[in-house]
Design a protein that fits this description.
Blueprint: H1 2-5, H2 12-20, E1 33-34, E2 37-38, H3 41-50, H4 56-82, E3 86-89, H5 97-109, E4 113-116, H6 126-138
Parallel strand pairs: 3-4
Antiparallel strand pairs: 1-2
Length: 167
């Protein structure tokens, strides 16, 4: 969304990463983490409001640092609470070298192995969503389109995953 607001063509993430590499000045932006919950809406609104008032490179650098710091914080909290020994970075953002660097650092601090999917698999989450739909269908869970809805505050720890449930 931020890349689109800057007028960058899709995919915008790599272009934001490139511009961030030229950034030198950190611009203060909202950082909202509550437990394992992140909120990017205030950050997005603040960043959009700064377009035209500072160097785009500095703004990209700052947005990237704040976003990834928030992700690193919840990753660290997850490792501390679960005791897991592996971290796998996936999705399109997994290609970002700065995020890889931050999550790898957190992983090492918690003696966890860090893995990142190969670039050929680090793409849009559409394929991952489709695969989840296939797994749901194969598990016998079918929701008619008319009965489906978006649950924006649906917590991951409340999601039933029938193909992963213990028997």
């Amino acid at each position: 969304m931020f890349a689109r607001a800057l007028g960058l063509k899709h995919p915008g993430g790599p272009k934001v990463e490139e511009l961030a590499g030229e950034g030198k000045l950190f611009i203060q932006l909202p950082y909202v983490v509550k437990g394992m919950d992140l909120s990017y809406s205030g950050l997005y609104t603040a960043a959009i409001g700064k377009i035209g008032h500072c160097r785009i490179e500095d703004l990209c650098y700052s947005v990237q640092e704040v976003c990834f710091s928030m992700l690193a914080e919840v990753t660290e909290r997850a490792l501390a609470h679960t005791g897991k020994r592996e971290v796998l970075l996936t999705g399109g953002v997994a290609r970002n070298k700065r995020l890889q660097e931050m999550i790898e650092y957190i992983s090492k601090e918690h003696d966890a192995e860090f893995h990142v999917v190969p670039p050929s698999l680090a793409g849009d989450n559409g394929a991952m969503i489709a695969w989840t739909g296939i797994l749901e269908y194969a598990s016998g869970r079918i929701i008619r389109v008319e009965e489906s809805r978006v649950k924006p505050r649906w917590r991951l720890d409340e999601v039933t995953v029938p193909w992963m449930e213990e028997s």
